Structures are given as structure tokens and as C-alpha cells.
Amino acid sequence: xxxxxxxxxxxxxxxxxxxxxxxxxxxxxxxxxxxxxxxxxxxxxxxxxxxxxxxxxxxxxxxxxxxxxxxxxxxxxxxxxxxxxxxxxxxxxxxxxxxxxxxxxxxxxxxxxxxxxxxxxxxxxxxxxxxxxxxxxxxxxxxxxxxxxxxxxxxxxxxxxxxxxxxxxxxxxxxxxxxxxxxxxxxxxxxxxxxxxxxxxxxxxxxxxxxxxxxxxxxxxxxxxxxxxxxxxxxxxxxxxxxxxxxxxxxxxxxxxxxxxxxxxxxxxxxxxxxxxxxxxxxxxxxxxxxxxxxxxxxxxxxxxxxxxxxxxxxxxxxxxxxxxxxxxxxxxxxxxxxxxxxxxxxxxxxxxxxxxxxxxxxxxxxxxxxxxxxxxxxxxxxxxxx
Length: 387
Ligand code: NDP
Prior knowledge:
There is one protein chain. By secondary structure, the protein is α/β, with parallel strands linked by helices. Among the domains are: 146 residues, 3-Layer(aba) Sandwich (Rossmann fold), CATH 3.40.50; 71 residues, Rna Polymerase Sigma Factor, Chain: A (Orthogonal Bundle), CATH 1.10.1740. The chain is 48% helix and 15% strand. The protein contains 17 helices and 11 strands. The structure holds NADPH dihydro-nicotinamide-adenine-dinucleotide phosphate. The site of NADPH dihydro-nicotinamide-adenine-dinucleotide phosphate (NDP) has 29 residues, from helix 1, helix 6 and helix 10. NADPH dihydro-nicotinamide-adenine-dinucleotide phosphate (NDP) binds next to helix 1, helix 6 and helix 10.
């Protein structure tokens, strides 16, 4: 029986992970959960999965949750970053699924690594912000970090059984999002509702908006660099609207390896929990004859400058990806709150990147300070923008 903690159990990945756990209850048991503010859903999860501890984002939310529970719910309720860290390092858990959205995922994930937990990593921001520290600490603590992001899971699966010295290139596939065929002019007028309508994947708001701007792919390029210890110039992105090929590797002799399947996050989540084993699921198999054509094209970085900005930040290294991520996080929130347009996103992020002097080999403190600085400066720019 593998004991699992889920950071971000009320989110899209969290719910899929709980579904995998429920359908494989002979293998997995929930040990602890965390949420942000959705205590209605967290309460239901407490009643169903009976975790020993939970944490939420702040004291007020924790008190509300506490008041809504009965004496039958024997669960420790924690809050704030300290509470999230305590749950992430909960002694009896074997594996922690890191699925908080955004930069808030970094510190709890690091706490889980320090506590010696294996990590199923969905929170790409952890690698984007602190990939060097995360990979170094994971080696030191002898913990495995298995990717959950479908592209990185695909690369991870493609590499199985192959000698790394034969790997020449990683090719991340991108659906292109809902605006793949929009003109630059049309992109200026898109609404939040349109942006949240991803053609292939059902995900949380932040990652869905990032998919539409292609920032998500940019963050994934940086994530891939750390996961697979690859040079940024050896990581390519190719647009593949069907999201059937989840990513590819190219060997030194030009042969390609691809991992394919239906677009459902339960598959990479389950694989991250059972690796190196696979388990049966109740999902439909991929029928390529029914799928028909698979298309591939070059990404348009003029139309989607966020991808270009991410490559530039990745090549610059140090704290540049921290700034990219922080500026994006604040700008996406502002877009959700209707304060800016979709097309403002890359302009704002570029301005903040241009104001930053990157720190090389940053410490955790450098990373956290840079994150705060970039968020504050992005907030100021947004205030100045008139819609
Ligand atoms: P969601 O927005 O659906 O869920 C986010 C989760 O994080 C929720 O449980 C939310 O709690 C919690 N949360 C948010 N902010 C905080 C905070 N400050 N403190 C504590 N908890 C917080 O996101 P997704 O599940 O879509 O994505 C999660 C991560 O996985 C992201 O990094 C994303 O990039 C990555 N990912 C997601 C994929 C997907 O298919 N969804 C695919 C690949 C990667 P609450 O709702 O209770 O406030």
C-alpha cells in the first residue's frame, strides 16, 4: 500500500489523482491533502478519503473548515506556508503529488523533498523557479521526481531503456490552444471565456490561459531542461493540434521516439505513482484509425511571443525564469480579473524581464526575493495600464 499526500487536492490534477487513487484502493491510500480556499470540496474529500492531516492557504479558511467538521472527522487542520510544509513532509507518506497551481507550490514541494518523499511533479513552477536546487536536493535526499506533466511524462517514457548518450533532442508537442489559427489582430479582442475553452485538455484556469498564450509551453521547455538535464538549444517545440503525440525524443541517428495516447491526465498521474509498473484503467484506448490525420507545424513566435520570452529567459538562466514565471502569474490573474487584455500578457512580461539583472546560481533566498520583486513590479505596471 503506497501512502500518498496530494498538494492541491481540490484542483484539476488533484481531482484526477484522487480518482486514480479511488479506483486503485488496493494499492494507494490518501495520507494528507492540501487545498487553497475550496473548503466545501476539501470537506467532502476529508469525509471520503479520511486523510490524517490537511492544510489550507490561510488561518481564516482553516477556522471555517475546522468549524464545519464534526468529531467523526479525525483530521489535523493546518494552514499557511508552515502548515503546507508540515503536510508536505507528513511522516507516514511515501509519495507526494505536487499539484498546487503557481509559485505557491515551490516551498511545500521542497519541504517534501527534504523530508525524503518521492515526488510526482505536476507543479512545473517548482522546476522553472528552482530547477537547479530541486534536482540537487533530490539527488542528495535520494528521492525520485517523476513528471506528471503529459509532455514530460512522455519524454520520461520514451527514454526508458535507452542510453542517454544516444539522445540528441527533445521535441515537446503543443496543442496551440484555442487561438492557434487566430490572426494577431484577432488576438487583441479575445475574451476570458474564449481563452478558457481549451480544445483538448480540461485544466485549471492559470494553465489553460498559459496554454492559449503558449507561455505554458515556454515553462515546459524550462521544466524539461531540469528534468532531463538538457541544453535549452536541444529542446524544440512543435505544434500538434490533436494532442495525441504527447512529446518525442530524437536519437543521434535521427530516429524519433514518440509517446501517444488519449489526452487524459489520469494516465501520466497513474504512471508517476506506479512507475516502473503500469496499471490497467477504464479509459478508452487510442484508436488511430478513428483519429485520422495527425498534423505538425512550427510554432509562430511572433503571434505567441510568450514562447520566445521563455526561451530567452531560459537561455539567460539564473533568476530570469523566476521573473518570467512571477510576471506571468500576476499578469494572468489581472487578465482573469478583467484588468488587462490577453494581448497585454507578453508585453507586460517582457517589460519586467527587461528591468531585471539576473542573479546566477541563485540561492533559495535569491529566488524568493526575485519572485516577490517581479510580482510587485508587475502589479505596478498593471495598475498603469488602461484597458
Ligand atoms: P487548479 O487551479 O485546478 O488547482 C490548483 C490547486 O492548488 C487547487 O487545489 C488550489 O486550491 C491550490 N492552490 C492554489 N493556490 C494555492 C495557494 N496559494 N496555497 C495553497 N494551495 C493553493 O490547477 P491545476 O490542477 O490545473 O494545475 C496544478 C499544477 O499542475 C500547475 O502547476 C499546472 O501547471 C500543472 N499541470 C496541470 C495540468 C492539468 O491538466 N490541469 C497538466 C500539467 C501540469 P483551491 O482550489 O482550494 O483554492
